[in-house]
Amino acid sequence: MLIRPACQSPHLPEIAGWLHAQWWGDSGYSRAATEGWLRAATGPAAPCTLIAERDGVPLGTATLDVDDLPSRPDLTPWLASVLVAPAHRRQGVATTLVAEVRRRAAALGHARLWLFTEDRQAFYAARGWVPEGPETWRGRPVALMSCALAVPPAAVPAPPPVPAR
């Protein structure tokens, strides 16, 4: 499986269609605006949308984003827009994409990653995410979840020197 930024994939227009149909159209984005956002989300820092591909076929997508839940602007970064094509579900695609977003967030020095979900709490809990409480998105209840990230040693600042006595 190949995972790369959407802006580097020939499948970006198709993925934009998936995301637009699933969520982004309801958020007021046009299909062209969805595609434009994905082209600009180049990473390595957020936002960065990733596409999973196998044998030239797009399988799914996930985004490392700065913010995702309007009621929680205090939290960052976010795992967002995890979507796998129906024909490729239950094959580890979402698990691989989620792990790659976690890896990228940790490599950037983040200690925690956030997400919200309407109905996939069990999927994320099985992968180490913990519930942080209920929230509301577009008038519907959602679960806020987070996971601790293993920050690479190079990203952790050195402690201050201990003063001599």
Order of strands across the main sheet: 1-2-3-4
CATH architecture: 3-Layer(aba) Sandwich
Distance between the termini: 57 Å
Please give the domain count. 1
Q: What's the order of the H and E elements? A: EHHEEEHEHEE
Structural class: alpha+beta
Show unreliable segments.
Answer: none
CATH class: Alpha Beta
Shape: globular
CA radius of gyration is 17 Å
Average predicted local confidence, pLDDT: 88
Instruction: Give the proportion of residues in helices.
Output: 10-25%
Count of DSSP E strands? Answer: 7
Main sheet specs: 4 strands, antiparallel
Number of helical regions: 4
As for the CATH topology, it is Aminopeptidase
Strand content: 25-35%
CATH homologous superfamily placement: Gcn5-related N-acetyltransferase (GNAT)
